[in-house]
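S1.2 Input.
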Amino acid sequence: MNAIVIRTISPQAIARIEELAATHHRTVEEEAAAILERAVFDRASRLAAVDRIAAMTPKGVEQTDSTAIIREARDRW
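S1.3 Output.
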């Protein structure tokens, strides 16, 4: 069995992990492991989703830079 020891974590983070563990009916160790698993593997699935979404755009269609849209909305306020 693998083990990781984390010596530098804030009390606030520990408290939040304890809350999540209680919500999910897990031990603190199980919850921390689940958080790490999601952090490691969810990134790959998010990047795959980005690629799938990008592939939906027809070839040759010019996309608007989201920065321009955000600035335009901000300037209206």
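S1.4 Remarks. The chain has a mean pLDDT of 89.
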